[in-house]
Amino acid sequence: MKKKDITAYLLRLTEALERLAPPLDPKPDFSSADAFTWRRSSGGFHPVFSVNRVELVLLKGIKQQKDILFNNTQRFAHGLSANNALLWGARGMGKSSLIKAVHGALSDIDTLKLIEIHREDIDALPDLLLILSHEPFRFIVFCDDLSFEGSETSYKALKSTLDGGVEGRPKNVIFYATTNRRHLIARNIMENESATAINPNEVIDEKVSLSDRFGLWVGFHNCSQDDYLLMVSAYVDHYKLIVPPELVRSEALEWSITRGARSGRVAWQFICDLAGRVGQSL
Fold first, then answer.
1. Closest CA relative to residue 159, chosen from 186, 126, 181, 133
2. Which has the closest alpha carbon to 238: 110, 106, 113, 60?
3. Radius of gyration in angstroms for the set of CA atoms belonging to the chain, rounded to a whole number
4. What is the CATH superfamily name and number for domain 30-220?
5. Are 69 and 85 contacting, i.e. CB atoms less than 8 angstroms apart?
6. Which of 140, 160, 209, 282 could pair covalently with 164 via S-S, beta carbons 3.0-4.6 A apart?
7. What's the pLDDT tens digit per position in 44-54?
8. Residues 47, 35 contacting (CB under 8 angstroms)
C-alpha cells in the first residue's frame, strides 16, 4: 500500500474507534447550584435549582435532633472535624426534611453543597467520593431511606468507604443517611445468616458494624398529640391560613385518627388539605 493509502486507512480507523468509545463525562460545575443529584446510570451530576424543603424553624418536636445535626454540619462547613450521621427511627418524623433544612439554613456558605445519591447506586459511592475529593467545595452526600435486603453485599462498599480503606473518607465530604432501621439490616436477615454460621455472633457483629461507622446516631420517635398539634399550628401561622384555631385542632386530630398516626408528614398532609379547602395556596 502507498503511504497516502495507509494514512487514509488509519484516519478512518481512528474515526471509527472514536465513534465506538463512550464520550467523557463533562466536568461538573458545582458553582451552578447548591444541590445536585448523582446517578451512576446517567453518568453525571444534575443540578437542583429549587430544593424540596421546608425552613428549619418549621420543624417542630425534634429540637434536640435539630441542634445535633445543625451543629455537626456547621462545623463541617467551616472546615472543622465532624461525623457522618445516621438519622433513624419513626416514619414521617422529618429525617430527610431535617437534612435538607439544615443545608438550607447554612446556604449562605457558598462552598457547602448537597449531593443526593440514590439507594440503588450506593455501591458506587467510592467512585462518587473520588470525584468530589478533587473539588474545592465541601459536600454533604445524602442517601434517603437506606437499608439492605436479602443477600445484598453493597453494604460492604459503604462500610469500607465511610471509615476504612487506605484513602479513607475525603476531608471535604460528609455522609448523611436516613433509615427506619437502627442497624440498616433487616433483623430476619441477620437471624437467618446467624442460624447457618459457625459463629453466629460474628455474623451479627459484621452487620451491626455498618451502623458503627456513623459517628452520630440521631433517633426519631413517634410524636405525642401535643407535638403533632404544635406542628400543625406552626404551619398555620407560617402560611397565614385564616381558620379558627378550634376548627384547626378538631380537624387535625380527626385527620390523624383516620391516618392511624401522628407525625410531621401527617401534619403537612393535613395542612395541604386544609389550605386547599379554604382556597389558600402554600
1. 126
2. 60
3. 24
4. P-loop containing nucleotide triphosphate hydrolases (3.40.50.300)
5. yes
6. 160
7. 899 999 999 99
8. yes
Composition of the chain by helix, strand, coil, percent to 5: 50, 15, 35
**104, three cell numbers:** 438550607
d(CA 229, CA 18): 62
CA distance 29 to 246: 51
CB 229 within 8 Å of CB 250: no
pTM: 0.81
Match 455474623 to its residue by C-alpha cell. Answer: 203
Question: How much is the pLDDT for 112?
Answer: 97
**Residue 194: pLDDT over 50:** no
Q: Please, are residues 111 and 137 in contact by the beta-carbon 8 Å criterion?
A: yes
For residue 203 the three cell numbers come to 455474623
187: its cell numbers: 433483623
Q: Tell me the residue length of the chain.
A: 282
pLDDT at position 183 is 63
Q: Which three cell numbers stand for residue 278?
A: 379554604
Nine cell digits for residue 280: 389558600
For the chain, the average pLDDT equals 84
- pLDDT value of residue 182: 67
Angle (CA) 128 130 131, round 5°: 70
pLDDT the model gives residue 123: 84
Cβ atoms of 194 and 200 within 8 Å: the answer is yes
Question: Is residue 174 a contact partner of residue 120, using CB atoms and an 8 Å limit?
Answer: no
Least confident of 22-26, 65-69, 158-162, 224-228: 22-26
